[in-house]
Amino acid sequence: MKKYNFTQANVHSSFMTLTPAPKAILNSLCKEFLSVNVSAILYLMNYEKYGRSTASAQYFLQLAGYLGIPVIAWNADNSGLERRASQSSLQLQLAPSLEHQTAAMLSILERYKWHQFSIVTSQIAGHDDFIQAVRERITEMQDRFKFTILNAVLYTKASDLVTLVNSESRVMLLYCTREEAIHILNHARELKITGENYVWVAAQSVIATGTPPTQFPVGMLGVHFDTSSTSLVTEITTAIKVYAYGVEDFVNDPRNANLSLNTKLSCEGAGLGDSRWETGDRFYKYLRNVSVENDMGKPNVEFTADGVLKAAELKIMNLRPGNNKQMMVWEEIGVWKSWEGEGLDIKDIVWPGNSHTPPQGVPEKFHLKITFLEEPPYVQLAPPDPVTVKCNMNRGVLCRVAREQDVAEMDQFSAHRNSSFYQCCSGFCIDLLEKFAEELGFTYELVRVEDGKWGTFENGRWNGLVADLINRKTDMVMTSLMINSEREGVVDFTVPFMETGIAIAVAKRTGIISPTAFLEPFDTASWMLVGVVAIQAATFTIFLFEWLSPAGFDMKVTPAANHRFSLFRTYWLVWAVLFQAAVHVDSPRGFTSKFMTNMWAMFAVVFLAIYTANLAAFMITREEFHEFTGVDDSRLSKPYSHKPMFKFGTTPYSHTDSTIKRYFVEMHAYMRNFNRTSVQEGIAAVNSGELDAFIYDGTVLDYLVAQDEDCRLLTVGSWYAKTGYGLAFSRNSKYVQMFNKRLLDFRENGDLERLRRYWMTGTCKPGKQEHKTSDPLALEQFLSAFLLLMSGVLLAAILLFFEHIYFKYIRVKCAKTDQGGCCALLSLSMGKSLTFRGAVFEAQDILRHHRCKDPICDTNLWKTRHELDLTRLRVLQLERSLDAHGIKPPARHINAPHAGVLMHHRDMTRNHVFTNEFGSRCYRPDEREVQEMETVL
């Protein structure tokens, strides 16, 4: 141990003889240090000139690190050493580091709530490391205190300080040498930035030792550690203990049994020694991990991984007048301890200008309590970030939404985390407020009105925002508060920053196609012309030409047997051609009637083309809405005059509500049942169909309409009772004029218009009726086609009822009188069914030409014939039985049961008459006629 102590003493005494020249430093290191195999260097000094000696020390310590020799240092100008160099070397620092000084300086700023500051440095060694240390410390403290560096000035000439004059910085951190500080503060005094509103906080290098220069302003603050000779001797003892503990730990470790603390280094080249001591890195770790007991209850001397002292203590100094008023002295007014939570303990301070209160740290600003009530897009609320408890850039500023007495019972951090107490306010008015605060230089507290009302005169007193101004609970109201004569009578308004009025919001109803939409392509007169004139004229013309034509009926009532044409078939032909139906029709034979049919077909082509083109337009869904002219529309102002009555409302205790109450008493009483507590509820009610209209401020409704996702909302009518939004103040407030001037400036330079465009725009444009996308047709839109089909079904059912009535009650009488000619001329098919004789003719024709085309049909026909033969045999048996009893049946000729009997031609024109036993003549059909009738029936 004596050998090591002797070596350390040689090292220290040799270093004191170093000259600044790099070559001399290298020669001294080679000859006086390496030659005696030093294993560590103790570098201790209290020289605070911060000039060439500082750079020489850096060079020396860098060389020691390159050679692998650990250094235990305590030097007063340590703050000037470059951190990058020290991190790359094997150095332990017993003195407070640069990080300790910056932490102590920022603790002073935190104590007095100085959020923003500037940094002033010279070109002293390590000035960039000082700025970096400040930034790193700010990052560590950002969770509990937010700092803002306004400027970082590198002083080289007097003009460099002009930046501080033009900024809002009132607190400056100064890092330079004592001599440089004299010039900097002298120029700062000339620029008037050392008065009572400015605070300068200096580092160790500025304070140094000795009498403070007269250029230093009263009230300066600084951080300092003792650099006297007594302190230096104490630190030598500590350094030796660190070295001794490190050697002891190194030697006692069995892993180092084969390692020596002799360096055996040489600067003479290969063969004479190594150029780097490889064991030095290993020995440095043992030195860094030591723990040396300290005096006076301070923490043990320990080091971080970078070789920096863990626990450091700094004195807080204040420059104040001494006993001799012309002399200044640095007086210790507190202490900063890195190992304590608060860290800072400060006594009374003499502030700049001999003031007993600290400066604000910002320009002389006034503070305003501002009350608001949320209403998008002017003020809208959103919860703060749950992690940082702060408002993001797009969420505005933090504002209180709870009562003051509720928040007072909680600590600030817990209250900010609770969204029922604090939220983030953003919107048009918040951006405008930020511009006012920046231009006029004031701070503010943003608070929501407690009763949640805008401010109306109810029951002999004011409520809401206006009441807070009257009672002077707030300094200003900043929201979408409308200016009216009643409010102007009790509070002061600025010039309007936005024009508005009372408007009406309605919703576009679902586009339902009219049930008669298929008739709308033509008006009533056109349909009458087509249905009554064109169709009837074409039908009778074609039939008339066919009846007159020699190739047709040739003016005969009874048509030819193979000519299947009639008046009803003409109607069928006309309708089929008109609607281009793919059905079977009977064509006329005459040339004239055929030509007329072609002319009708040409008319049908033109008619269908026009009808189809217009039908496409009428079948498109139509967006319908209530087109009110304004609040004074009779359907609104006199709600009971219209049936059914419209459902509309507004929000109570608002400007709209009070205006309607004053000028439309009946309307106000009616709409009270339909009012909604908020604008959002009213808009939702209009969207859902609960309300037909919602009445409110025009600009707010325009914004909500523009933000509607489905673009179903729109504003209608003209604005009623046009006015504007203004900033409201208490009576005779001194702030009205300054805000008025700024508002006019914002209007002239376009700031208000830019804010309006940013906040008032949306995807939908009010008043325009257009879809963003095509919607599919729903059942309601296609209802007209189904109604047409249902009407046809009902009409067919009625015709079926009449058909049954006719066949059951009327047909018997018609069969006795009609001979089949006239009915056949009207319609062959209907004539045969309406008259019995026609039906028999039809049945005879079917039987004559019937041929089965499949085995099933033949089987059924054979079965029917077999049943008929059995019936005839039964008749013969009955006749024989009668004859056996002496009863003579009438003479009857019965043919053999074969199919040929049914195929004979029937003479339906001859009547079969016989005389009964009473001598009267009776009609009796012959056997063939009876068989034919049975077949038909």
Could you walk me through the main structural features you see in this protein, from its secondary elements to its overall organization?
Helix 10 packs across helix 11, helix 17 packs across helix 18 (567-579) and helix 21 (655-663) crosses helix 22. The chain has an eight-stranded mixed β-sheet with strand order 5-4-6-7-8-9-10-11. A five-stranded mixed β-sheet has the order 16-12-19-25-20, sandwiched between helices. A four-stranded mixed β-sheet has the order 22-23-21-24. Among the domains are: 1-95 and 228-310, Rossmann fold (3-Layer(aba) Sandwich); 98-225 and 312-363, Response regulator (Rossmann fold, 3-Layer(aba) Sandwich); 524-618, Helix Hairpins; 622-721, Periplasmic binding protein-like II (D-Maltodextrin-Binding Protein, domain 2). Helix 3 links the parallel strand 1 and strand 2 (71-75). The protein starts with a helix and ends with a helix. The protein is 42% helix and 14% strand.
Secondary structure class reads alpha/beta
Q: What percent of residues are in strands?
A: 5-15%
Largest sheet: 8 strands, mixed
Mean pLDDT over the full residue set: 78
Shape: elongated
Membrane topology: Multi-pass membrane protein
Protein name: Glutamate receptor ionotropic, NMDA 2B isoform X3
GO cellular component, one term: postsynaptic membrane
GO molecular function, one term: signaling receptor activity
